[in-house]
Amino acid sequence: MKVYVLWHIHTLEDDYCEHDDEKLIGIYSTKEKAETAIEGHKDLEGFRDCPSECFEIDEYEVDQTGWTEGFTTVRYGK
After folding, report:
1. Helix, strand, or coil here: 42?
2. Which helix (H) or strand (E) segment is 39 a member of?
3. Alpha helices (H) in 1-78, listed in sequence order
């Protein structure tokens, strides 16, 4: 079974670094339902100030591991 995860991601910049501001909007049973959710959000406060490319739909297979590697944390100081 597949699900469709809808994110809103945009880049924030400050004096020290750039970082992504990620918001999980929802998880949907079809891509079409995720696309409908975009239509319902794109004119809301905050979302309307970002380009429509900030919405991202990712397809996932249920009960499958998506992250199979380790990670490295990068810290930015003042």
Report:
1. coil
2. helix 31-41
3. 31-41
